[in-house]
């Protein structure tokens, strides 16, 4: 034998090249067929006459005589060349590929090679693959409608640019013309190869029928079951044809259908060929050429044989097989899928429990994956092109998720325990396969030198293997050994070979087994890809999405839904270097599908989780104190005669009644939701993350994202804010609802591994900001608006009174029914709940809004001071002249307005002080060890401390809710009011005059009947008791900005001594004896009876 033929090397290279050319042709076909992606040169209106002329005259285009038709190409010849050159080169690749295939097939025929799938598996498989790939390339090429236009335009532009046609154009044009009817031409080409092709195909006559069995026979034979023979569980799974056991059925059917179409003469002369062909025709209606390019096998076969004399019987056979396929194949494949779902689940459970079995039973895994993949692909290609039948449900599988899920689990199990598989098979290769191979070689009566060298190298390579290599995590590479085995198959399969392989079946058996074992050691990922790759789903997005929707509607399938996004990780493996342009669109499509599925699963899961939380919140709400009034009332009167229940009145159930059941089998709504949640969360157990085109996808993050969005919306909804009616939920009720939600959300970690604490922190932290991450309003904004627009606005109109006694605001009794009771929203409990909800950030935002309202009042006060400046200056200078003061007072205007605005400022500051105190209480409870140092830092501040340092420390303390002598927020707000036009001296003057204005206006309060002191409230009904707070804090802020002594300026206002840290009782005593105040209080409280004991 001439070893220089290199049949093995050529088959390997041409198959790889052919796949690339096929994918390239398919890409060009899709590109030209899609209006959005179609080359601009073909859509240009100016090019239409040239394209029509080229298509009409192709390939003999007269470039000189009909120049008027080609004017548009003449004008843009360089652009045309650039736009069409890649397509021209791609079509040239087809010619080059065709030439090499012709040459190799002729060489193989000349060598009269022997083909048998069970003996020289790799040689036969590569040969049949090459034939099918070549045929697929030609068929796909013939389906490109614009190929003549693209090639013709390129050649026109080439001729116009270079003065001559491209040298390859005549051959390319001739090829296009020849393949206008591709099957007719292909059958002519393959006539001389009929013997070789038929021999190779007939070697499948035992394998294909054995693999193409109905599910009933699989079930009766307990196929793929490790439990059917417990005694043999540890025995290695092996047979004479290891690789044949997981060979794809789709691949075999493609070989048989296309092979007998090309070499159809054997169908009339060979009964075995005819039976094999009929069996393949009955298995389905469509075959995939590549991607989503399919072949309607019955139609193509019938059309071809109709045009050939003497094939009427074959046409009748085709029609009979088609009817059989339409009636029976759908049901047969449906039953196979049903069987495989159970078989894969059992296989996975056993192997997961005993991963050590992955070594001896690895073949079972690859068989299970291959069988399942075949059924998935069959359903996909037939669902997309479903024939008109009476039972369309056979082509719809709403349980596809389960099959894909178990396939993914088996793949994951093999990857997880790869070292188990490697350890087992390295020992098997070194301690068994090497010895058997050596004995087989020794028993051979003839062994030429070349073959001897190869087989000796096999033995030495396998004998050198050691378990330590696995323990040391060394990388194995047996590709050279497998290529040498393919070479040996080629050398020993030619006619008159010195060592004919067909005479040494034992050598073929042991080498085929060695080939499988080496692949499990160094190419496990490649084997998994070969047996379970379902990347075809990327090209059938409609079918893929439909499968997902059908599965998601089934309760029992929800636990398997994660298989759909996980399968998208396969899509990155189906590209080819010859068509890099395809990768971008595939990546986008894969990520879109993956994200769509994950979003849908996360949406379903989050909906169920939050429905359960809502249900639990309702139950928790029943236990709130506000609902116990009826129970208390009933308890107080239970000794009385029970009143007769009114007819039709339903007795109110007590909380907890929902847990009492007479029959546990009756499922409540909560039971059903928990079951659904369990099912959905089970799907997240498939994998924690996976990779889709170099993007790491973490399914749990999609769930957290959905929960974050929904929870934020729900919290705002629970606030129940109505801007029109100004209704809102009490802060304590909202806080109780949020706590009920978060408590139940934490139970989610029992179902799926997600960081619920991070989720809750993120959502609640966003609620302390004015807007959340989506730009929507938060409870901070809602409550800030409500307190400003409802409570404080009414307080400024004296409809609501600040009550120092109870530390809250109280609604006044009026003729009109109030929309809310202020005490229910502003007592210590509610403001502590508000502080808990809004936190320091939220209360800072609230303070900033309060300060804005204060500054607007201060601005108006300054305007009034400026209007009355002359009078106020005179009053300041003549304060000790009663008659002069009386006259000036009559000329002064707006005194009541000043007091009204100061009262509003006082009310706002009093509310802020209450909120700050409640924030302090909350922080003392949550972080006492942080609050201690802040308090110490505040207490260290003295009047001598630098004002910048003082304000910085006070800002820290104020953020923690601690009271400060000077309010830093008020200082910042008033400081921002100053403009470059006014000097500090002018501002100081205005501040002094404002205090004068307030002082001289105070006596007018005695005329207001609402100024009477209220014993119940500890203040006045017109909130004038808030004036002290306003004067103290406003003066402190203004004089701090103006670098003046606050104490010195406030000595004129000794009446606010209780509110001011800058004044003392001694100062008051020197001017106004405290005994007078004491007597006034005693007079007010005279009618109050206080009892002790």
From TrEMBL:
<dbReference type="GO" id="GO:0048812">
    <property type="term" value="P:neuron projection morphogenesis"/>
</dbReference>
<dbReference type="GO" id="GO:0016477">
    <property type="term" value="P:cell migration"/>
</dbReference>
<protein>
    <recommendedName>
        <fullName>NCK associated protein 1 like</fullName>
    </recommendedName>
</protein>
<feature type="compositionally biased region" description="Basic and acidic residues">
    <location>
        <begin position="646"/>
        <end position="660"/>
    </location>
</feature>
<dbReference type="GO" id="GO:0030031">
    <property type="term" value="P:cell projection assembly"/>
</dbReference>
<feature type="compositionally biased region" description="Basic residues">
    <location>
        <begin position="635"/>
        <end position="645"/>
    </location>
</feature>
<dbReference type="GO" id="GO:0030866">
    <property type="term" value="P:cortical actin cytoskeleton organization"/>
</dbReference>
<feature type="region of interest" description="Disordered">
    <location>
        <begin position="635"/>
        <end position="660"/>
    </location>
</feature>
<dbReference type="Pfam" id="PF09735">
    <property type="entry name" value="Nckap1"/>
</dbReference>
<dbReference type="GO" id="GO:0031209">
    <property type="term" value="C:SCAR complex"/>
</dbReference>
<dbReference type="InterPro" id="IPR019137">
    <property type="entry name" value="Nck-associated_protein-1"/>
</dbReference>
């Amino acid at each position: 034998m001439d070893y220089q033929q290199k049949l093995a090397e050529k088959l390997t290279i041409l198959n790889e090249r052919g796949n690339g050319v096929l994918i390239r042709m398919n890409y060009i076909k899709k590109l030209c067929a899609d209006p959005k992606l179609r080359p601009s040169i073909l859509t240009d209106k100016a090019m239409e006459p040239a394209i029509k002329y080229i298509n009409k005259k192709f390939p003999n285009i007269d470039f000189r005589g009909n120049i008027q038709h080609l004017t548009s190409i003449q004008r843009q010849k360089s652009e045309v060349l650039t736009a069409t050159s890649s397509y021209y080169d791609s079509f040239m690749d087809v010619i080059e590929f065709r030439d090499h295939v012709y040459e190799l097939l002729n060489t193989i025929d000349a060598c009269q090679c022997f083909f048998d799938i069970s003996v020289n598996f790799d040689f036969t498989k590569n040969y049949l693959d090459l034939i099918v790939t070549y045929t697929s390339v030609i068929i796909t090429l013939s389906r490109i409608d614009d190929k003549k236009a693209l090639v013709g335009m390129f050649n026109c532009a080439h001729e116009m640019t270079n003065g001559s046609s491209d040298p390859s154009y005549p051959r390319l044009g001739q090829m296009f013309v020849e393949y206008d009817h591709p099957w007719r031409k292909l059958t002519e080409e393959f006539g001389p190869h009929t013997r070789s092709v038929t021999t190779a195909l007939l070697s499948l006559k035992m394998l294909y029928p054995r693999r193409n069995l109905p599910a009933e026979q699989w079930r009766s034979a307990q196929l793929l079951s490790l439990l059917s023979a417990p005694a043999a569980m540890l025995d290695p799974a092996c047979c004479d044809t290891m690789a044949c056991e997981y060979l794809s059925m789709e691949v075999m059917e493609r070989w048989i259908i296309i092979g007998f179409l090309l070499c159809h003469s054997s169908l009339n002369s060979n009964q075995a060929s005819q039976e094999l062909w009929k069996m393949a025709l009955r298995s389905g209606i469509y075959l995939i050429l590549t991607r989503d390019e399919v072949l309607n096998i019955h139609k193509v076969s019938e059309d071809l044989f109709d045009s050939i004399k003497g094939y009427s019987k074959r046409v009748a056979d085709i029609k009979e097989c088609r009817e059989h396929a339409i009636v029976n194949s759908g049901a047969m494949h449906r039953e196979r899928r049903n069987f495989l779902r159970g078989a894969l689940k059992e296989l996975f459970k056993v192997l997961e429990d005993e991963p050590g079995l992955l070594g001896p039973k690895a073949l079972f895994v690859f068989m299970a994956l291959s069988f399942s993949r075949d059924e998935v692909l069959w359903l996909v290609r037939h669902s997309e092109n479903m024939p008109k039948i009476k039972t369309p449900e056979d082509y719809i599988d709403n349980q596809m998720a389960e099959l894909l899920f178990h396939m993914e689990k088996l793949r994951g199990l093999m990857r997880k325990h790869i070292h188990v598989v490697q350890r087992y098979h390295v020992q098997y290769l070194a301690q068994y396969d090497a010895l058997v191979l050596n004995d087989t070689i020794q028993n051979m009566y003839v062994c030429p030198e070349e073959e001897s060298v190869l087989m000796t190298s096999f033995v030495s390579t396998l004998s050198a293997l050691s378990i330590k290599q696995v323990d040391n995590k060394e990388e194995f590479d047996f590709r050279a050994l497998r290529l040498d085995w393919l070479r040996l198959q080629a050398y020993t399969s030619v006619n008159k070979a010195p060592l004919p392989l067909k005479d040494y079946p034992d050598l073929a058996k042991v080498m085929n087994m060695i080939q499988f074992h080496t692949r499990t050691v160094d190419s496990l990922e490649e084997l998994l890809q070969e047996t379970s790759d379902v990347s075809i789903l990327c090209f059938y997005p409609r079918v893929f999405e439909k499968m997902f929707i059908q599965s998601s509607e089934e309760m029992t399938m929800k636990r398997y839904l994660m298989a759909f996004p996980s399968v998208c990780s396969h899509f990155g493996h189906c590209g080819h270097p010859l068509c890099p342009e395809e990768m971008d669109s595939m990546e986008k499509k894969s990520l879109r599908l993956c994200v769509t599925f994950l979003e849908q699963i996360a949406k379903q899961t989050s909906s169920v989780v939050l429905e359960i939380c809502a249900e639990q919140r309702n139950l928790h709400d029943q236990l709130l104190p506000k609902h116990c009034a009826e129970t208390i009332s009933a308890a107080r009167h239970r000794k009385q005669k029970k009143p007769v229940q009114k007819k039709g009145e339903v007795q109110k159930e007590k909380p907890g009644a929902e847990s009492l059941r007479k029959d546990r089998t009756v499922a409540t709504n909560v039971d059903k939701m928990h079951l659904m949640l369990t099912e959905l969360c089970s799907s997240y157990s498939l994998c924690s993350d996976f990779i889709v085109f170099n993007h790491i996808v973490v399914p749990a993050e999609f769930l957290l994202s959905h929960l974050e969005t929904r929870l934020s919306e729900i919290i705002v909804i629970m606030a129940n804010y109505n801007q029109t009616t100004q209704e809102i939920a009490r802060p304590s009720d909202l806080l109780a609802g949020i706590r009920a939600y978060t408590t139940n959300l934490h139970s989610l970690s029992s179902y799926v591994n997600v960081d619920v604490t991070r989720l809750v922190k993120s959502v609640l932290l966003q609620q302390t900001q004015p807007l959340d991450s989506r730009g929507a309003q938060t409870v901070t904004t809602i409550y800030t608006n409500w307190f400003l627009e409802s409570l404080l606005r009414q307080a400024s109109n004296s409809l609501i009174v600040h009550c120092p006694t109870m530390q809250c605001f109280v609604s006044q009794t009026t003729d009109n029914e109030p929309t809310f009771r202020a005490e229910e929203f502003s007592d210590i409990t509610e403001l502590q709940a508000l502080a808990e909800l809004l936190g320091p950030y939220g209360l800072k935002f609230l303070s900033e809004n309060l300060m804005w309202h204060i500054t607007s009042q201060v601005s108006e006060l300054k305007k009034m001071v400026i209007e009355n400046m002359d009078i106020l200056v005179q009053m300041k200078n003549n304060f000790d002249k009663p008659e002069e003061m009386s006259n000036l007072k009559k000329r002064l205007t707006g005194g009541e307005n000043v007091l009204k605005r100061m009262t509003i400022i006082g009310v706002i500051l009093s509310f802020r002080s209450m909120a700050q105190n409640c924030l302090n209480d909350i922080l003392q409870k949550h972080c006492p060890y942080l609050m201690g140092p802040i308090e110490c830092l505040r207490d260290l501040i003295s009047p001598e401390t630098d004002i910048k340092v003082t304000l910085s420390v006070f800002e820290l303390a104020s953020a923690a809710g601690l009271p400060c002598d000077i309010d830093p927020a008020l200082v910042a707000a008033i400081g921002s009011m100053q403009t470059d036009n006014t000097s500090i001296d002018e501002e100081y003057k205005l501040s002094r005059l404002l205090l004068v204005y307030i002082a001289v206006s105070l006596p007018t309060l005695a005329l207001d009947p609402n100024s009477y002191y209220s014993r119940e409230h500890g203040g006045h009904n017109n909130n004038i008791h808030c004036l002290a707070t306003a004067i103290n804090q406003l003066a402190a802020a203004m004089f701090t900005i103006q670098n003046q002594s606050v104490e010195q300026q406030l000595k004129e206002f000794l009446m606010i001594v209780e509110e001011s840290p800058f004044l003392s009782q001694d100062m008051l005593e020197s001017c106004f004896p405290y005994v007078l105040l004491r007597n006034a209080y005693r007079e007010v409280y005279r009618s109050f009876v206080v009892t002790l004991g």
